[in-house]
Amino acid sequence: xxxxxxxxxxxxxxxxxxxxxxxxxxxxxxxxxxxxxxxxxxxxxxxxxxxxxxxxxxxxxxxxxxxxxxxxxxxxxxxxxxxxxxxxxxxxxxxxxxxxxxxxxxxxxxxxxxxxxxxxxxxxxxxxxxxxxxxxxxxxxxxxxxxxxxxxxxxxxxxxxxxxxxxxxxxxxxxxxxxxxxxxxxxxxxxxxxxxxxxxxxxxxxxxxxxxxxxxxxxxxxxxxxxxxxxxxxxxxxxxxxxxxxxxxxxxxxxxxxxxxxxxxxxxxxxxxxxxxxxxxxxxxxxxxxxxxxxxxxxxxxxxxxxxxxxxxxxxxxxxxxxxxxxxxxxxxxxxxxxxxxxxxxxxxxxxxxxxxxxxxxxxxxxxxxxxxxxxxxxxxxxxxxxxxxxxxxxxxxxxxxxxxxxxxxxxxxxxxxxxxxxxxxxxxxxxxxxxxxxxxxxxxxxxxxxxxxxxxxxxxxxxxxxxxxxxxxxxxxxxxxxxxxxxxxxxxxxxxxxxxxxxxxxxxxxxxxxxxxxxxxxxxxxxxxxxxxxxxxxxxxxxxxxxxxxxxxxxxxxxxxxxxxxxxxxxxxxxxxxxxxxxxxxxxxxxxxxxxxxxxxxxxxxxxxxxxxxxxxxxxxxxxxxxxxxxxxxxxxxxxxxxxxxxxxxxxxxxxxxxxxxxxxxxxxxxxxxxxxxxxxxxxxxxxxxxxxxxxxxxxxxxxxxxxxxxxxxxxxxxxxxxxxxxxxxxxxxxxxxxxxxxxxxxxxxxxxxxxxxxxxxxxxxxxxxxxxxxxxxxxxxxxxxxxxxxxxxxxxxxxxxxxxxxxxxxxxxxx
Length: 817
Fold this sequence. Notes:
Blueprint: H1 2-16, H2 21-37, H3 45-59, H4 61-79, H5 85-92, H6 98-103, H7 109-114, H8 122-138, H9 141-148, H10 153-161, H11 180-191, H12 195-206, H13 209-216, H14 219-231, E1 236-239, E2 255-264, E3 271-288, E4 295-303, E5 314-323, E6 330-331, E7 344-355, H15 369-406, E8 408-409, E9 412-413, H16 418-446, H17 452-477, H18 479-482, H19 491-495, H20 497-502, H21 507-522, H22 527-536, H23 539-566, H24 580-604, H25 612-637, H26 645-669, H27 673-683, H28 695-706, H29 710-716, H30 732-754, H31 763-772, H32 778-795, H33 811-816
Parallel strand pairs: 1-4, 2-4
Antiparallel strand pairs: 2-3, 3-7, 4-5, 6-7, 8-9
């Protein structure tokens, strides 16, 4: 009995610590010997023979391949679904980083905490404090979206003159050469003032030809275009999406045929005859900056039916740079994306001849467009929309916290009502999650990584959290946020939510196909190795990968069961105190996630690719592992401030709860019910024990938004706030300060009113009466008067002349005061 217990413990320890096969062999041999010589049990010869045969097969590669991995390799090659070229390029694009650790089942928390904290250089900080601040002061979002439907000419010129369009361009070409972190913080700050200006700045830096030129352009292309892009002489756009190919960008119908032709270069006016080039036809829609662009980045499928370049006819997706003044290029019309006024529109052309030299990177990069786009998109999707989402969260936190404290109903600040308090906790918690997630990814980008899987995580989860935060902010503000006008600082961002949800890969597709579809292959320690071995028919490499994979699965079974039984209490943590349990739970669920991934691939095989609901839940697991770990990294980066513990707890506990629910939903819908039942007992032996953040923590988060303190400051750092009290956002903190300072006086006045001490009826008359009777001093009278005026400025909404549609913010002010 004791020997059996020892065997179980031995197997569990070997599996838990992922011992190699040789160590398993030695350990079990020692146990068998101990049975015979320590416990006095005779081990039959047959057992030793079987053990010897198994040991030989497992430890000798030529035998293992002959008996086990060779036949498995044959089956694997048959059942592995074929990959299209675009799928292969998407999977090969970018790199894996911290996401690989999360997929490993044993995240290296010291590695996470050792990642360098992102920082701004002196030049980057000066740009944020100088030109970016100045740009924000110039932006009047109501005027831009309601009246001009565009940025004013002076704002456009300022953006060009100060180098905003060349933030990513290297200094040797006249650009600013900012880090990805600085790029994101500039976009975030501008977006807290106005989405139109932010989009106009971010697109040339993350989704335009500039990014492609820097990585793939010829020296001639770089020397000509990059200085012009940096100075704003050229305004770029990139045309990929067509009416018939949205999320499936690889299916674009636009095409270019290799041929000989003639053209006039619009840049020099020089005529070129009988040159080798392409006759391109395209129809694109939803192209940001297209109506005002001077240079068009164009993606199309390239064909060479006459074999002018070689034997290959279908060359593949290709990217070219075409001046918009070039003959046949149609551009200038625009779309109106909901709630925003940034330039966006169609472009089209039919049989437009361009030389091969206009291909980005030259003719050597013909057919390489899809790889180029996927690699660059993985960078851009970490920056642009996640930064705008962070900006929305900051604005929602800053404004809703102050407004909920200033606005009162039934004699109480609305933020103190539990229903409002619950919504505010979500705003603060989601904002913390969004910025933490992006900052960690930016750390990877600036260290040379291109985390394509994490870029998809950020694109989906940050924009979805932005949607939730803005919805809650609109609810708390109520009528204040419903009426459009210069005083409304939320509605335009709220109206524009579908833009972020739709572009750069629709969110539904990103969640159900991309996050896990890429993550399972790229981040898994063995799957990509196995697939590559099958594609190259490399049996030796498959042998190494599959044996490691089996060990990996066995380990995760034991690790998940042990940590589930013990609640992960015996797992190590890099930090003590209240955060230790979070690291332990994340380790537990990393193993569980890895196990579920392998069991999904094992039970469903290639059909998992089409089980989008299951894939989405697996993606949710990976995403929430990342989000929770990013929050822990942020907390330590900020110096582990005790004041931030409530918002950290809310953010991490909600991510862990969402992770648990995704696992529960996955197990509830896994087709193999027997396998699902076994996995549920292994992963959740005591049931679903994790709960969402409790009401007490939520209230603490809400209160931190309503108080002028360090947690609120850290949540909203980096946003633009006008110092002008006539500004609808700028007035919030002065009003909040004034109200807090005069609360004792207001309480005194309310008590006198309840006791019937006033003869007057209105609040204004009672205030004057209190001054005349000596109940309050002149200083208190002036302070209360100012606080009430500022409160009114915060609460009021705009009204317009029915004919002129011009607001008169001062009309009622003059009538009442």
